Amino acid sequence: MKARTYGFRTGLLACALLLGGCGGSIQARNVDIKKAFLVNPTMYTKGNGDQAIYRYVKPGVNLKKYTKVLVDPVIIVKEAELDADQLENYQKLANNAYAFLTSDISKDYKIVNSTGPDVMRFQFAIVDADSSKPVRNLLSSVSPVGIGMTIVKYGATGKPSGVGEVTAEMKATDSLTGELLGAALDHRVGDKTPQSIIDTWYNADEALKYWSKRVRFVMCKARGDADCVKP
Hints:
By secondary structure, the protein is of the alpha/beta class. The chain has a single domain (about 25-135, about 160-225), classed as Rossmann fold, CATH 3.40.50. Helices cover about 40% and strands about 20% of the residues. Strands 1, 2, 3, 4, 5, 6, 7, 8 and 9 form a nine-stranded mixed beta sheet that branches. A hairpin with a 7-residue loop joins strand 2 and strand 3 (about 55). The longest helix is centred in the middle third of the chain and has 22 residues, at about 85-105.
């Protein structure tokens, strides 16, 4: 009987730990389209597969004409609603997002500080974010009851229990004309990696890292390059 119980618990634990993979964040199943901030929500269509949950791409867009990118400071949409501690955490996320974006985009483009005829403007907004909850995260990873609840919750919502999450919106325009080239609204949640128990904002940071690499990949595909690296 004990052997059966141990095997059952081990199986549940393995299942819970594998719910989100190993990347620190996974795409959520949905996001409220009304949270769109950078573009009119009516412009978005639902993405497919691993694309952003909502996206817009200018028909026939080709980014080959652009050789430089102007990356705006990251916007915190909920800034007026946050207390001092929350704002500090959001600002850290915004600073990290800017660093990740400029690092990845600079691998293909020159980062500049002004507009120009060959300059694309990129904007990124943190719409909403939440830290992981270490106690709930830990209990839902090691307690048989907690693991069972995590599996049920994941099946119903696509989000494991106790993990962090972040919603972000991205927008690329021609820096001179303001013509919209592409935009995306996406929502990512944490997986059950141990780091999220130690660092409560680990999941959100991992989502930001993913998006910066995804931006580079999407821009590479839009240029028609053959060596695009998918995150």
